[in-house]
Amino acid sequence: MFVFGASSDSNRAGQDTIRDFVSGQDKIDVSAISTLSALQFVNAFSGHAGEAILNYNQSSNLGSLAIDFTGQGAGEFLVGTVGQAFAADIIV
Q1: Model pLDDT for residues 32-54, shown as the tens digit of each residue
Q2: CATH architecture type of domain 2-91
Q3: What is the pTM of this model?
Q4: The dihedral of CA 40, 46, 47, 52: what is its sign?
């Protein structure tokens, strides 16, 4: 379990990378960051709070999770992964 307590824990200015992420075994817990009850996974931010983008490059085995908690149209939270994460791996 990888637990984050604030969006500033991992953002564009200081992004964390989870180097050994295994989908189905590991979880990314962002429940302490916001009172949101769910995330909406999208391809691009549109200015709505709770939007999240999951990216993955199969050839490099690198992924990322970006979350817009405030509806500003940009991800305040960004974490990289070595290994692919899916929506079911994220705890809100």
Answers
A1: 998 889 999 999 999 999 999 99
A2: 2 Solenoid (2.150)
A3: 0.94
A4: positive
